Amino acid sequence: MFSKHVLYFSLARLALGQLDAIPTGFDTDRWAWWSNEDPLLAVIPGQFNRTLWDTSSAANVSDERVQAINDHVNQSSFVAYDERFFDIIGPKATVEQLQVLPFQVHEASCYIPETGQLFFIEWGPPGGVNGSHDWQYLLDVKTNDLTRIQTNPPTWNVHGCVYQNGKLHVVTDGGPDETPYLATIDPYTLERKTILNNYFEQPFISFNDLELDREGNYYLTDSYSGWGRSLHPYAAPTSPTVYFVNGTTLRIKPLTFLYPGNANGITLSPDGKTLYLADTGASDSSQKPGVRRDNYPRDLWAWDFATSSNGEKLPLLTNQRLISRAIQYFYDGIRVSRNGWLFGAGGETVDVLDPESGWTLGSIRVGGGGNDPVNIAFGKHEMRIIGKGGVWHVKNIRERLDKRWT
Ligand SMILES: *[C@@H]1O[C@H](CO)[C@@H](O)[C@H](O)[C@H]1NC(C)=O
Ligand SMILES: *[C@@H]1O[C@H](CO)[C@@H](O)[C@H](O)[C@H]1NC(C)=O
Ligand SMILES: *[C@@H]1O[C@H](CO)[C@@H](O)[C@H](O)[C@H]1NC(C)=O
Ligand SMILES: *[C@@H]1O[C@H](CO)[C@@H](O)[C@H](O)[C@H]1NC(C)=O
Ligand SMILES: *[C@@H]1O[C@H](CO)[C@@H](O)[C@H](O)[C@H]1NC(C)=O
Fold first, then answer.
1. Same domain, 264 and 136
2. Is 350:226 a contact under the CB 8 Å cutoff?
3. 245 alpha carbon to ligand 4 midpoint, in Å?
4. In a shared domain, residues 152 and 235
5. What is the mean predicted confidence (pLDDT) over 50-73?
Protein backbone atom coordinates (compact mmCIF):
# COMPACT_ATOMS: atom_id res chain seq x y z
CA MET A 1 0.00 0.00 0.00
CA PHE A 2 2.61 2.48 1.07
CA SER A 3 4.85 1.96 -1.94
CA LYS A 4 1.86 2.31 -4.30
CA HIS A 5 1.03 5.59 -2.64
CA VAL A 6 4.60 6.83 -3.12
CA LEU A 7 4.53 5.86 -6.79
CA TYR A 8 1.22 7.68 -7.32
CA PHE A 9 2.64 10.78 -5.68
CA SER A 10 5.78 10.73 -7.78
CA LEU A 11 3.80 10.30 -11.01
CA ALA A 12 1.73 13.36 -10.10
CA ARG A 13 4.91 15.32 -9.46
CA LEU A 14 6.34 14.21 -12.76
CA ALA A 15 3.14 15.22 -14.50
CA LEU A 16 3.53 18.73 -13.12
CA GLY A 17 7.18 19.06 -14.15
CA GLN A 18 7.01 17.49 -17.58
CA LEU A 19 3.55 18.35 -18.80
CA ASP A 20 3.63 21.98 -17.73
CA ALA A 21 6.17 22.55 -20.47
CA ILE A 22 3.85 21.19 -23.18
CA PRO A 23 1.92 24.02 -24.86
CA THR A 24 -1.87 24.02 -24.45
CA GLY A 25 -3.64 22.17 -27.23
CA PHE A 26 -1.01 19.41 -27.36
CA ASP A 27 -2.17 16.02 -26.06
CA THR A 28 -0.12 15.14 -22.99
CA ASP A 29 -0.54 11.39 -23.72
CA ARG A 30 1.06 11.69 -27.16
CA TRP A 31 3.70 14.27 -26.23
CA ALA A 32 6.66 14.39 -23.88
CA TRP A 33 9.00 17.26 -23.08
CA TRP A 34 12.61 16.35 -22.36
CA SER A 35 14.70 19.11 -20.82
CA ASN A 36 17.67 19.27 -18.49
CA GLU A 37 15.83 22.12 -16.80
CA ASP A 38 14.03 19.25 -15.10
CA PRO A 39 16.40 18.58 -12.15
CA LEU A 40 15.62 14.85 -12.33
CA LEU A 41 17.11 14.70 -15.81
CA ALA A 42 20.05 17.04 -15.27
CA VAL A 43 21.25 15.08 -12.23
CA ILE A 44 19.80 11.57 -12.25
CA PRO A 45 19.52 10.28 -8.69
CA GLY A 46 20.83 6.79 -7.95
CA GLN A 47 22.14 4.48 -10.64
CA PHE A 48 21.67 4.75 -14.36
CA ASN A 49 23.16 3.06 -17.42
CA ARG A 50 22.53 2.57 -21.12
CA THR A 51 24.50 1.61 -24.21
CA LEU A 52 24.64 3.70 -27.40
CA TRP A 53 22.29 1.11 -28.96
CA ASP A 54 19.47 1.82 -26.50
CA THR A 55 17.20 4.82 -26.75
CA SER A 56 17.49 7.20 -23.75
CA SER A 57 14.14 6.17 -22.24
CA ALA A 58 15.30 2.53 -22.28
CA ALA A 59 18.13 3.28 -19.83
CA ASN A 60 18.32 1.24 -16.61
CA VAL A 61 17.53 3.63 -13.79
CA SER A 62 17.08 2.97 -10.09
CA ASP A 63 14.99 6.09 -9.30
CA GLU A 64 11.30 5.44 -9.81
CA ARG A 65 10.53 9.05 -10.74
CA VAL A 66 13.06 8.84 -13.57
CA GLN A 67 11.60 5.46 -14.52
CA ALA A 68 8.17 7.13 -14.69
CA ILE A 69 9.58 9.73 -17.11
CA ASN A 70 11.06 6.91 -19.19
CA ASP A 71 7.75 5.03 -19.26
CA HIS A 72 5.92 8.19 -20.33
CA VAL A 73 8.47 8.86 -23.11
CA ASN A 74 8.26 5.24 -24.26
CA GLN A 75 4.48 5.53 -24.67
CA SER A 76 4.67 8.94 -26.41
CA SER A 77 4.57 9.53 -30.16
CA PHE A 78 6.46 12.82 -30.01
CA VAL A 79 9.31 13.87 -27.70
CA ALA A 80 10.31 17.54 -27.83
CA TYR A 81 13.79 18.78 -26.82
CA ASP A 82 13.20 22.23 -28.35
CA GLU A 83 10.10 24.49 -28.60
CA ARG A 84 10.44 24.58 -32.39
CA PHE A 85 9.47 20.90 -32.56
CA PHE A 86 5.93 21.78 -31.42
CA ASP A 87 5.65 24.26 -34.32
CA ILE A 88 6.99 21.83 -36.91
CA ILE A 89 4.76 18.89 -35.93
CA GLY A 90 1.70 20.78 -34.63
CA PRO A 91 -0.97 19.60 -32.17
CA LYS A 92 -3.03 17.43 -34.57
CA ALA A 93 -0.31 14.99 -35.65
CA THR A 94 -0.71 11.30 -34.85
CA VAL A 95 1.34 8.14 -35.47
CA GLU A 96 -0.45 4.98 -36.61
CA GLN A 97 1.01 1.61 -37.53
CA LEU A 98 -0.26 0.63 -41.00
CA GLN A 99 1.48 -2.71 -41.49
CA VAL A 100 3.00 -5.15 -39.02
CA LEU A 101 6.02 -6.80 -40.63
CA PRO A 102 8.93 -8.87 -39.28
CA PHE A 103 11.70 -7.20 -37.23
CA GLN A 104 13.78 -7.13 -40.38
CA VAL A 105 15.16 -4.12 -42.25
CA HIS A 106 12.65 -2.45 -44.61
CA GLU A 107 13.82 0.59 -46.54
CA ALA A 108 14.14 2.28 -49.99
CA SER A 109 10.79 4.00 -49.39
CA CYS A 110 9.37 6.04 -52.28
CA TYR A 111 5.95 7.66 -52.23
CA ILE A 112 4.37 7.83 -55.72
CA PRO A 113 1.72 10.61 -55.53
CA GLU A 114 0.22 9.82 -58.98
CA THR A 115 -0.70 6.25 -58.05
CA GLY A 116 -1.05 6.69 -54.27
CA GLN A 117 1.47 3.91 -53.67
CA LEU A 118 4.41 3.46 -51.34
CA PHE A 119 7.28 1.46 -52.82
CA PHE A 120 9.72 -0.16 -50.38
CA ILE A 121 11.82 -3.28 -49.91
CA GLU A 122 12.76 -5.95 -47.42
CA TRP A 123 16.50 -5.96 -47.08
CA GLY A 124 19.13 -8.62 -46.44
CA PRO A 125 19.14 -11.62 -44.11
CA PRO A 126 17.32 -13.39 -42.52
CA GLY A 127 14.74 -12.78 -45.33
CA GLY A 128 14.97 -13.59 -49.02
CA VAL A 129 17.17 -16.34 -50.45
CA ASN A 130 20.34 -16.23 -48.36
CA GLY A 131 19.46 -12.59 -47.69
CA SER A 132 18.95 -11.75 -51.38
CA HIS A 133 15.61 -10.40 -52.64
CA ASP A 134 14.44 -10.21 -56.27
CA TRP A 135 11.09 -8.65 -55.30
CA GLN A 136 9.81 -5.39 -53.77
CA TYR A 137 6.70 -4.19 -51.92
CA LEU A 138 3.96 -1.80 -53.10
CA LEU A 139 1.52 -0.46 -50.50
CA ASP A 140 -1.73 1.11 -51.73
CA VAL A 141 -2.13 3.97 -49.26
CA LYS A 142 -5.94 4.19 -49.77
CA THR A 143 -6.80 0.52 -49.21
CA ASN A 144 -3.68 -0.40 -47.20
CA ASP A 145 -3.26 -3.46 -49.51
CA LEU A 146 0.32 -4.66 -49.54
CA THR A 147 1.55 -6.61 -52.56
CA ARG A 148 4.88 -8.08 -53.60
CA ILE A 149 5.98 -7.05 -57.07
CA GLN A 150 8.73 -7.98 -59.50
CA THR A 151 10.11 -5.56 -62.02
CA ASN A 152 10.72 -6.51 -65.65
CA PRO A 153 13.46 -7.74 -65.71
CA PRO A 154 13.65 -8.61 -61.97
CA THR A 155 15.82 -6.30 -59.84
CA TRP A 156 17.96 -7.85 -57.09
CA ASN A 157 18.52 -6.18 -53.74
CA VAL A 158 17.20 -2.67 -54.22
CA HIS A 159 18.56 -0.66 -51.28
CA GLY A 160 17.70 3.02 -51.98
CA CYS A 161 14.95 4.88 -53.85
CA VAL A 162 14.01 8.43 -54.88
CA TYR A 163 10.85 9.25 -56.85
CA GLN A 164 11.31 12.06 -59.39
CA ASN A 165 10.14 12.89 -62.94
CA GLY A 166 7.56 10.09 -62.90
CA LYS A 167 10.15 7.39 -62.21
CA LEU A 168 11.51 5.45 -59.29
CA HIS A 169 15.28 5.96 -59.25
CA VAL A 170 16.83 3.04 -57.40
CA VAL A 171 20.26 1.73 -56.44
CA THR A 172 21.07 -1.92 -55.73
CA ASP A 173 23.55 -3.93 -53.68
CA GLY A 174 24.20 -6.30 -56.54
CA GLY A 175 22.99 -9.89 -56.45
CA PRO A 176 24.10 -13.51 -56.80
CA ASP A 177 25.32 -12.94 -60.39
CA GLU A 178 25.74 -9.19 -60.71
CA THR A 179 27.45 -6.11 -59.31
CA PRO A 180 25.52 -3.06 -58.01
CA TYR A 181 23.85 -0.53 -60.32
CA LEU A 182 21.71 2.60 -60.62
CA ALA A 183 18.40 2.08 -62.44
CA THR A 184 14.97 3.55 -63.06
CA ILE A 185 11.64 1.73 -62.65
CA ASP A 186 8.45 2.86 -64.39
CA PRO A 187 5.75 2.83 -61.67
CA TYR A 188 2.99 1.86 -64.18
CA THR A 189 4.70 -0.87 -66.26
CA LEU A 190 7.33 -1.88 -63.64
CA GLU A 191 9.86 -1.90 -66.46
CA ARG A 192 13.40 -1.52 -65.12
CA LYS A 193 16.12 0.27 -67.05
CA THR A 194 19.75 0.11 -65.85
CA ILE A 195 21.42 3.54 -65.98
CA LEU A 196 24.98 2.96 -64.72
CA ASN A 197 26.77 -0.12 -63.40
CA ASN A 198 30.48 0.73 -63.17
CA TYR A 199 33.12 3.30 -62.30
CA PHE A 200 35.51 3.23 -65.28
CA GLU A 201 34.96 -0.59 -65.49
CA GLN A 202 35.41 -1.07 -61.73
CA PRO A 203 32.42 -2.63 -59.92
CA PHE A 204 30.77 -0.71 -57.10
CA ILE A 205 30.87 -2.17 -53.55
CA SER A 206 27.11 -2.22 -52.80
CA PHE A 207 24.95 0.87 -53.12
CA ASN A 208 23.03 1.97 -50.07
CA ASP A 209 21.07 5.10 -50.88
CA LEU A 210 20.80 8.03 -53.27
CA GLU A 211 19.55 11.57 -53.71
CA LEU A 212 18.65 13.56 -56.83
CA ASP A 213 18.90 17.32 -57.24
CA ARG A 214 16.32 19.40 -59.08
CA GLU A 215 18.27 19.05 -62.34
CA GLY A 216 18.24 15.25 -62.08
CA ASN A 217 21.89 14.71 -61.11
CA TYR A 218 22.59 11.79 -58.79
CA TYR A 219 24.39 11.55 -55.44
CA LEU A 220 25.06 7.88 -54.62
CA THR A 221 26.39 6.22 -51.49
CA ASP A 222 28.46 3.11 -52.24
CA SER A 223 28.70 1.21 -48.97
CA TYR A 224 29.94 -1.89 -47.16
CA SER A 225 26.44 -2.93 -46.06
CA GLY A 226 25.33 -5.33 -48.83
CA TRP A 227 28.86 -6.61 -49.45
CA GLY A 228 29.25 -7.08 -45.66
CA ARG A 229 26.20 -9.34 -45.71
CA SER A 230 27.54 -11.29 -48.76
CA LEU A 231 24.69 -10.27 -51.05
CA HIS A 232 27.03 -10.65 -54.03
CA PRO A 233 30.21 -12.69 -54.53
CA TYR A 234 32.54 -9.85 -55.60
CA ALA A 235 35.35 -8.36 -53.52
CA ALA A 236 35.04 -4.81 -52.19
CA PRO A 237 37.10 -2.78 -54.67
CA THR A 238 37.50 0.35 -52.52
CA SER A 239 36.30 2.08 -49.34
CA PRO A 240 32.76 3.50 -48.88
CA THR A 241 32.40 6.41 -51.32
CA VAL A 242 29.91 9.12 -52.22
CA TYR A 243 29.68 9.63 -56.00
CA PHE A 244 28.29 12.47 -58.06
CA VAL A 245 26.76 11.40 -61.39
CA ASN A 246 25.76 13.99 -63.98
CA GLY A 247 22.17 12.98 -64.85
CA THR A 248 22.59 14.03 -68.51
CA THR A 249 26.00 12.62 -69.42
CA LEU A 250 26.33 9.98 -66.63
CA ARG A 251 29.85 11.26 -66.06
CA ILE A 252 30.86 10.13 -62.56
CA LYS A 253 33.19 11.52 -59.91
CA PRO A 254 33.82 10.72 -56.21
CA LEU A 255 32.79 13.48 -53.80
CA THR A 256 34.14 11.99 -50.58
CA PHE A 257 34.87 8.66 -48.92
CA LEU A 258 34.61 7.33 -45.36
CA TYR A 259 37.20 5.03 -43.81
CA PRO A 260 36.75 3.99 -41.07
CA GLY A 261 33.01 4.42 -41.41
CA ASN A 262 30.27 3.61 -43.87
CA ALA A 263 28.38 5.77 -46.36
CA ASN A 264 24.64 5.35 -45.83
CA GLY A 265 21.75 7.87 -45.95
CA ILE A 266 22.20 10.93 -48.15
CA THR A 267 20.14 14.06 -48.80
CA LEU A 268 20.44 17.64 -50.09
CA SER A 269 19.23 20.97 -48.73
CA PRO A 270 16.25 22.44 -50.65
CA ASP A 271 18.58 24.87 -52.50
CA GLY A 272 20.92 21.99 -53.45
CA LYS A 273 23.92 23.80 -51.95
CA THR A 274 24.50 21.51 -48.94
CA LEU A 275 24.97 17.74 -48.82
CA TYR A 276 24.16 15.66 -45.72
CA LEU A 277 25.53 12.16 -45.19
CA ALA A 278 24.85 9.55 -42.49
CA ASP A 279 27.91 7.54 -41.45
CA THR A 280 26.85 4.12 -40.13
CA GLY A 281 30.27 2.57 -39.55
CA ALA A 282 29.04 1.32 -36.18
CA SER A 283 26.55 -1.05 -37.87
CA ASP A 284 27.25 -4.79 -37.91
CA SER A 285 26.28 -4.95 -41.55
CA SER A 286 29.37 -2.91 -42.51
CA GLN A 287 31.60 -5.58 -41.11
CA LYS A 288 33.80 -8.23 -42.63
CA PRO A 289 37.33 -9.17 -41.60
CA GLY A 290 39.73 -6.33 -42.40
CA VAL A 291 37.14 -3.55 -42.11
CA ARG A 292 38.00 -0.94 -39.48
CA ARG A 293 35.31 0.00 -37.00
CA ASP A 294 37.33 2.57 -34.98
CA ASN A 295 35.24 4.77 -32.74
CA TYR A 296 31.92 3.25 -33.90
CA PRO A 297 31.03 6.10 -36.31
CA ARG A 298 27.33 7.04 -36.36
CA ASP A 299 27.52 10.64 -37.39
CA LEU A 300 25.50 13.05 -39.47
CA TRP A 301 27.85 15.18 -41.58
CA ALA A 302 27.27 18.27 -43.72
CA TRP A 303 29.31 19.78 -46.54
CA ASP A 304 28.74 22.73 -48.85
CA PHE A 305 29.44 22.51 -52.57
CA ALA A 306 32.32 24.63 -53.79
CA THR A 307 31.56 27.11 -56.56
CA SER A 308 33.61 27.96 -59.65
CA SER A 309 35.10 31.39 -60.33
CA ASN A 310 31.86 32.28 -62.17
CA GLY A 311 29.62 31.09 -59.35
CA GLU A 312 28.53 27.65 -60.65
CA LYS A 313 28.07 24.75 -58.25
CA LEU A 314 30.99 22.32 -58.56
CA PRO A 315 31.11 18.57 -57.82
CA LEU A 316 33.53 19.37 -54.96
CA LEU A 317 32.76 19.48 -51.24
CA THR A 318 34.01 22.07 -48.75
CA ASN A 319 33.31 23.13 -45.17
CA GLN A 320 32.75 19.68 -43.64
CA ARG A 321 31.01 19.88 -40.25
CA LEU A 322 29.46 17.48 -37.79
CA ILE A 323 25.71 18.16 -37.54
CA SER A 324 25.33 15.65 -34.72
CA ARG A 325 26.19 12.21 -33.47
CA ALA A 326 22.86 10.40 -32.96
CA ILE A 327 21.63 10.49 -29.32
CA GLN A 328 21.12 6.73 -29.71
CA TYR A 329 21.96 4.17 -32.42
CA PHE A 330 22.71 5.75 -35.84
CA TYR A 331 20.77 7.54 -38.57
CA ASP A 332 20.15 5.21 -41.49
CA GLY A 333 17.78 6.97 -43.90
CA ILE A 334 17.94 10.79 -43.88
CA ARG A 335 15.72 13.28 -45.74
CA VAL A 336 15.35 17.06 -45.80
CA SER A 337 11.83 18.51 -45.70
CA ARG A 338 10.54 21.33 -47.93
CA ASN A 339 11.69 23.99 -45.45
CA GLY A 340 15.06 22.37 -44.81
CA TRP A 341 14.55 20.44 -41.55
CA LEU A 342 16.68 17.29 -41.38
CA PHE A 343 14.88 14.04 -40.60
CA GLY A 344 17.01 11.05 -39.55
CA ALA A 345 15.59 7.54 -39.05
CA GLY A 346 17.37 5.06 -36.82
CA GLY A 347 17.04 3.14 -33.58
CA GLU A 348 13.61 3.63 -32.01
CA THR A 349 13.05 7.11 -33.45
CA VAL A 350 12.91 9.48 -36.36
CA ASP A 351 14.72 12.59 -35.13
CA VAL A 352 14.23 16.10 -36.49
CA LEU A 353 17.35 18.29 -36.49
CA ASP A 354 18.04 21.95 -37.21
CA PRO A 355 20.48 21.83 -40.18
CA GLU A 356 22.21 25.08 -39.18
CA SER A 357 22.88 24.60 -35.48
CA GLY A 358 22.74 20.80 -35.44
CA TRP A 359 20.40 20.76 -32.41
CA THR A 360 18.11 17.74 -32.23
CA LEU A 361 14.65 19.34 -31.96
CA GLY A 362 12.58 16.26 -31.23
CA SER A 363 11.93 12.59 -31.84
CA ILE A 364 9.01 10.80 -33.49
CA ARG A 365 8.47 7.39 -31.88
CA VAL A 366 6.84 4.23 -33.24
CA GLY A 367 6.38 2.35 -29.97
CA GLY A 368 9.77 0.92 -29.05
CA GLY A 369 9.86 -2.77 -28.23
CA GLY A 370 11.87 -3.65 -31.36
CA ASN A 371 10.08 -1.27 -33.76
CA ASP A 372 12.92 0.58 -35.46
CA PRO A 373 12.53 3.24 -38.17
CA VAL A 374 15.00 2.81 -41.06
CA ASN A 375 13.71 5.19 -43.71
CA ILE A 376 10.98 7.74 -44.42
CA ALA A 377 8.90 9.01 -47.35
CA PHE A 378 7.31 12.45 -47.26
CA GLY A 379 3.84 13.40 -48.48
CA LYS A 380 2.45 16.93 -48.15
CA HIS A 381 1.59 17.14 -44.45
CA GLU A 382 2.27 13.49 -43.75
CA MET A 383 5.07 10.99 -43.86
CA ARG A 384 5.45 7.25 -43.83
CA ILE A 385 8.09 5.56 -41.73
CA ILE A 386 9.32 2.12 -42.69
CA GLY A 387 11.67 -0.10 -40.77
CA LYS A 388 12.01 -3.12 -38.55
CA GLY A 389 8.48 -4.10 -37.51
CA GLY A 390 6.48 -2.48 -40.29
CA VAL A 391 5.12 0.73 -41.80
CA TRP A 392 3.79 3.73 -39.88
CA HIS A 393 1.82 6.79 -40.97
CA VAL A 394 2.42 10.16 -39.34
CA LYS A 395 -0.41 12.42 -40.47
CA ASN A 396 -1.70 15.96 -39.90
CA ILE A 397 1.82 17.36 -39.52
CA ARG A 398 1.74 21.15 -39.53
CA GLU A 399 4.78 21.70 -41.80
CA ARG A 400 4.65 20.90 -45.50
CA LEU A 401 7.25 18.17 -46.03
CA ASP A 402 7.40 17.11 -49.70
CA LYS A 403 9.89 18.65 -52.15
CA ARG A 404 8.92 21.67 -54.24
CA TRP A 405 9.44 19.58 -57.37
CA THR A 406 8.93 15.90 -58.19
C1 LIG B 1 26.57 -0.49 -18.03
O2 LIG B 1 26.24 -1.04 -19.30
C3 LIG B 1 27.32 -1.65 -19.96
C4 LIG B 1 26.82 -2.12 -21.31
O5 LIG B 1 25.78 -3.03 -21.18
C6 LIG B 1 27.84 -2.83 -19.14
O7 LIG B 1 28.97 -3.37 -19.79
C8 LIG B 1 28.23 -2.33 -17.77
O9 LIG B 1 28.59 -3.42 -16.99
C10 LIG B 1 27.05 -1.61 -17.13
N11 LIG B 1 27.48 -1.10 -15.85
C12 LIG B 1 26.84 -1.37 -14.74
C13 LIG B 1 27.43 -0.81 -13.48
O14 LIG B 1 25.80 -2.04 -14.72
C1 LIG C 1 19.90 -3.40 -17.28
O2 LIG C 1 19.42 -4.27 -16.30
C3 LIG C 1 19.21 -5.60 -16.75
C4 LIG C 1 18.56 -6.38 -15.63
O5 LIG C 1 19.23 -6.15 -14.41
C6 LIG C 1 20.56 -6.18 -17.18
O7 LIG C 1 20.36 -7.47 -17.70
C8 LIG C 1 21.15 -5.29 -18.26
O9 LIG C 1 22.44 -5.75 -18.60
C10 LIG C 1 21.26 -3.87 -17.76
N11 LIG C 1 21.72 -3.03 -18.88
C12 LIG C 1 22.61 -2.07 -18.68
C13 LIG C 1 22.94 -1.28 -19.91
O14 LIG C 1 23.10 -1.83 -17.61
C1 LIG D 1 22.75 -20.26 -49.68
O2 LIG D 1 24.06 -20.26 -49.08
C3 LIG D 1 24.54 -21.55 -48.81
C4 LIG D 1 25.85 -21.40 -48.02
O5 LIG D 1 26.72 -20.51 -48.68
C6 LIG D 1 24.73 -22.31 -50.12
O7 LIG D 1 25.18 -23.61 -49.86
C8 LIG D 1 23.37 -22.39 -50.84
O9 LIG D 1 23.53 -22.96 -52.10
C10 LIG D 1 22.78 -21.00 -51.01
N11 LIG D 1 21.43 -21.13 -51.54
C12 LIG D 1 21.03 -20.50 -52.64
C13 LIG D 1 19.62 -20.78 -53.06
O14 LIG D 1 21.74 -19.70 -53.25
C1 LIG E 1 26.06 17.93 -66.71
O2 LIG E 1 26.48 17.84 -68.06
C3 LIG E 1 25.86 18.79 -68.91
C4 LIG E 1 26.28 18.46 -70.35
O5 LIG E 1 27.70 18.50 -70.47
C6 LIG E 1 26.29 20.18 -68.49
O7 LIG E 1 25.64 21.14 -69.28
C8 LIG E 1 25.90 20.39 -67.03
O9 LIG E 1 26.41 21.62 -66.58
C10 LIG E 1 26.47 19.28 -66.15
N11 LIG E 1 25.95 19.46 -64.80
C12 LIG E 1 26.74 19.48 -63.74
C13 LIG E 1 26.06 19.76 -62.43
O14 LIG E 1 27.94 19.25 -63.79
C1 LIG F 1 8.16 0.43 -24.57
O2 LIG F 1 6.84 0.01 -24.85
C3 LIG F 1 6.78 -1.16 -25.64
C4 LIG F 1 5.33 -1.39 -26.03
O5 LIG F 1 4.49 -1.30 -24.93
C6 LIG F 1 7.39 -2.31 -24.87
O7 LIG F 1 7.37 -3.48 -25.66
C8 LIG F 1 8.82 -1.97 -24.53
O9 LIG F 1 9.39 -2.98 -23.71
C10 LIG F 1 8.90 -0.64 -23.80
N11 LIG F 1 10.30 -0.26 -23.66
C12 LIG F 1 10.86 0.01 -22.50
C13 LIG F 1 12.28 0.36 -22.54
O14 LIG F 1 10.21 -0.03 -21.48
1. yes
2. no
3. 10
4. yes
5. 96
Q: Please check whether residues 59 and 105 belong to one and the same domain.
A: no
Domain final residue pick, 76, 100, 116? 76
Residues 285 and 372 grouped into a single domain: yes
Ligand 5: residue whose CA is nearest its atom 13:
58
- Model-level pTM greater than 0.85? yes
Phi-psi region of 272 (alpha: psi -120 to 50; beta: other; left: phi over 0): left
**Residue 81, domain member (yes or no):** no
Q: Can you tell me which atom of ligand 3 is nearest the CA of 132? A: 14
Separation of CA 284 and ligand 2 centre (Å):
21
84 in a structural domain = no
Same domain, 185 and 222: yes
Domain that holds residue 114: 89-395
193 forms bridges with which residues in the sheet? 184
pLDDT per residue as tens digits for the range 189-232: 999 999 999 999 999 999 999 999 999 999 999 999 999 999 99
Residue 8 has pLDDT above 50, yes or no: no
* Residue 130 in contact with ligand 3 by CB distance below 6 A: yes
pLDDT tens-digit map of 82-104: 999 999 999 999 999 999 999 99
What local confidence, expressed as pLDDT, does residue 207 receive? 98
pLDDT tens for 117-158 read 999 999 999 999 999 999 999 999 999 999 999 999 999 999
Q: Residue 373, preceding bond cis, omega within 30 degrees?
A: no
Overall number of domains in the chain: 2
Q: What is the CATH classification number for the domain harbouring 312?
A: 2.120.10.30
Q: Which atom of ligand 2 is nearest to the CA of 51?
A: 13
Could you tell me if the CB of 233 is within 6 A of ligand 3?
no
**C-alpha dihedral, 67 to 69 to 71 to 77, nearest 10°:** -160
* Contact present, 387 and 375 (Cβ < 8 Å): yes
Residue 395 alpha carbon to ligand 2 centre in Å? 36
Residue 304 to residue 276: CA distance in whole angstroms: 9
pLDDT in tens, 154-176: 999 999 999 999 999 999 999 99
- Examine the domain organization and report whether 365 and 301 are in the same domain: yes
Q: What is the pLDDT of residue 5?
A: 35
Residue nearest to atom 7 of ligand 2 (CA): 60
